[in-house]
Input
Amino acid sequence: MKTLLLMRHAKSSWKYDDLADHDRPLKKRGEQAAALMGELIRRHSLTPQRILSSTAKRALHTAQLVAEACHYEGRIIATRALYGAEPDDFVEVLRQLDDADELVMVVGHNPDLEMLLESLTGAMESLPTAALVQVALPIDSWKELQENTRGELVHFWAPSTL
Output
C-alpha cells in the first residue's frame, strides 16, 4: 500500500499582470495557508518521504513552506512535467519513484490535480487553493501505478475548514 498526498498550490497573486502564469508568486494569505497545511501534515503524522512539485513559482514556494512546517528533511523534486499535467503525466513521474518511498506528496495545479484525483479514486472533488487530499493506493511498487489504479480518498482538508 502506498499513500499519495495531492496538494493544490496556495493562493497566488495576480498583482503583476506582466508576469507569465508560470512565474506568479504566492500572496501573503497563500503563504500562511501553506504553512498551516504543513502543520496539519505534521500533526497527522503524514510527513512525506518525497515531495514532488510543479516548477511554477507558486507551487514550488507552496512545497517549500509545507516542507518546512511538516519537518520534511528531503529535497523537493521540481519537474516541469507537473505543470499543465494530465493524469498520465503524473503517473509517469510517480512510476519513477523509489519503492522505499511509501508516502509521497505532489504539489500542483487545477484542473490537473482534480483530474488525477478522479482518475485514481473516482471522486469528483473541487480543490480550492492549498487543499490537501490523502489517497491510499493498493500498490506495493510505484511501477504498478496506472491511470485506472483504483485508490481510496482517505481525507480531504481545505484551509478554510480548519
Q: What stands out?
A: The mean pLDDT is 95. Strands lie at 2-8, 50-54, 76-79, 103-108, 132-137, 152-157. Residues 65 and 136 are 24 Å apart (CA to CA). Residues 2-161 form a domain with the Rossmann fold fold (CATH 3.40.50.1240).
